[in-house]
Amino acid sequence: MISVVGEALVDLIAGPDGRTFTAHPGGSPANVAVGLARLGTATALHTHLGDDLFGRFLRDHLAAEGVPVDLLPARDPGTSVAFAATDQDGVAAYDFRIGWDVTRIPAARVLHTGSLAAALAPGPVEAAMDAAATVSYDPNIRPALAGPRAAERARVERQVGKADIVKASADDLAWLYPGADPRERAADWLARGPRLVVVTLGPDGAYAVTQDGQVTRSCGPVTVVDTVGAGDSFTAALLHALDRAGALEHGSDRPEDLVAALDLANAAAAVTCGRAGADPPTADEIDYGKFTRTGGEVPGDAD
After folding, report:
1. What pTM was computed for the model?
2. Which of 178, 235, 243, 271 has the smallest CB count inside 10 Å?
């Protein structure tokens, strides 16, 4: 069981006319929980939802996906909303109306968290990270809601030090460390305590570093409708594959486990880019078998 802590919200995505918006379930942690459930990994989402139209919409969506929801106590009564518009390449820009002021998070053995929840209420999130045996963390920086860069950098570095597995995007690192080499920053984060740091590189695939070495996995051509939720699909598939290989809680010294996990994660992100909104794939949609040792085929090029 992977317990996911963080925001669930509604993405209102603008159409080509900029005037018509379509509602999609969203929120990075909620997307990860749905992605895990669709791949067949048991999960639960600890979040805040209001008793309102959007809150009921999200409850119905999560129930249909088989994701149990633990509603956390919070002072804000409403359900959060993100407005999104995409550019000519399908890359989304966001404008948030979010409330996340939870005061208590239950203990979990295996925990995934990050994103806005870790930025807006770091105290409860960090307490949950400290209590968990295994922690996955995705900072998922949102500049529109970020505080001063130096303060955000200090917070993220502190939270990286509490995690076992860290996934970040090249955009996250570019905002936190302008002009820095993402591989150098990943190595610095690894030295702070995690056993695995993964950086997604958009169309160039993903880079991972452990104490035993580093690997870059490419991804094939991707048809982009929009990039909403692609990073969350990547995270879900990465955790799912590591869990299936027995490498999530206990670690692994087998490089093939990490290679297969990165390939599966790249494939999951590619599927999500090819359709509107945060819509992660099922195992059937990404042919899970070919990304396992028993499947025989491990695509991509390792460094």
Report:
1. 0.91
2. 178
